[in-house]
Amino acid sequence: MNHIATTQPCRRVVITGIGAVTPVGNTAPATWAALTAGRSGIARITRFDPNTCNVHIAAEVKGFEPSRPLPVPLHPRGPGAAPLTHTLSLKEIKKFGRFTHLGTAAAVEAYTDSGLDAHRATLSADRMGVNLGVGLGGLPEIEAMHDTWKAGGYRKISPFFIIQIAPNLLAGQVGVQLNFRGPNMSVASACATSGHAIGEAAATVARGDADVMIAGGAESTVTPLAIGAFAQMRALSQRNDAPEQASRPYDADRDGFVLGEGAVVFVLEEYGQAVRRGAHIYAEIRGYGASADAYHLSMLAPGAEGSARAMSAALQRSGLKATDIDYVSAHATSTPGGDSEEATAIATVFGENKANLHVSGVKSMTGHLLGGAGAMGAFAAVMAVHDGIVPPTINLANVDPVSAATGLNFTPNIAVRKPVRAALSNSFGFGGTNASLLVSQV
Predict the structure, then answer these.
(1) What is the pLDDT of residues 301-335, one digit of tens each?
(2) Which residues does the annotation mark as catalytic?
């Protein structure tokens, strides 16, 4: 028998800061502007020559400067300590892998956005924690260091190599950078990684183990091995001549996902503290559901049954009804099987609400951020609640028959302005792991 906890958390959890470095923008505002405008970040790969592979396209982060100066100096260790003036110093850039560069930038942006820095004198660093997920870790650095070792031997291996590749070093660096001395951890659950990281971080605040958590995820694996491996699985789109049209969730002509990179990070905070310090609140985290298909390592269960259970758990824990949900930010990778299975699951959970519900897949613009995908989807849900705009599923010209049969509105090509009282985001990963997050207006 399935057991779903129905007890409401003791403490409410809200989102008070957001940061993003994505294929469509190097900040959260730029990313949201691109998503609502329906702009794609997919193009020909520039980080290596892809000509010998049958896939030439990806969603790369463009024009990113890991040592970018901050808008204002930060003082996470108090006025007597040296201020933080740049995301990373030039020395730190050499120490860390690209996923840490991206994730740290998003985390510092989220922290700055939250306004917490002005209140550090009255807040305990021991009550502030980090949960940042990374799916594959430092694959670019592993590939490069292997080449260095083969060419020059052991003495050429960098002493920073382990720091560059270990997935939890992002969370560790953010904790050091921002002086967060509470729980510090990293989740790795494939493409559900950052969905789980956010959900578990919210639970940490809800049960009283922290008052603030930085949560989200990052990934940077646009490399020959990753592109080649996914291509060998026949998982990637080969629409090389029209990259901006390659990711097309729910479309009958979709032929696979597009690999992306980036980071999205949130500041989660106990509601009472956020109100007392006058924080800007984007949304409240109302529910979190996690489940396993126990079916197949790389395919959803029929009808996405496990995914439906995760959505149902998030909905039940939220105390809301299906008819209260105005938007689902779908996992929607643009794979032939996965999209229609997820659509079936969404219709199963929210069938009584089809007339009011919008569904969309922002991977049509950002590609698939792997470990960062759950946070990217949550970003769309949070901003839809905050701004009253549902981002579109671009490249949707002809809904496939199975998805069309669900009767869902997949928000084709153009954003929709509407009040969004509550929204749910999905992220599902290899191994049959599922995460659903439900956010609402406060």
Answers:
(1) 787 888 999 999 999 999 999 999 999 999 999 99
(2) 191, 331, 368
